[in-house]
Amino acid sequence: MTMFDWDEKPELNITPLVDVMLVLLAILMVISPNIVYEELIRLPKGSAQHELTKIPPVNITISKDGEVTVNKEPFKLDTFADNFALFAQTLDHKATVLISADQSLDYGKVMSILGAVKQAGFRDVSLATNG
Question: What does pTM read for this prediction?
Fold first, then answer.
């Protein structure tokens, strides 16, 4: 009869555990690029019968001297809001408005032009930038 040695430390052999983890890691690395996360969404139905018509854009240019031109029509900066509201009645309000302003202009002047364009009923307004 042998006596159990209480001072002996048990050793845990982790080699098989490491082997299994490396195999699982290799499998995961091979499979993961092929996993595609797809979110199912329901898109609204469109009508293919109506052909899109190209609406010419409205170009507004503001020079550093404060001269405003809308499609090559000159406007004064002081009275732009009222005059543009009258001029906008002849334009299609679904058109894209592109505002090009000199970078040395005061931010408030450009925002007043933008506000007048929005108030006239245009929704698609962009500020042109360099590059």
Answer: 0.56
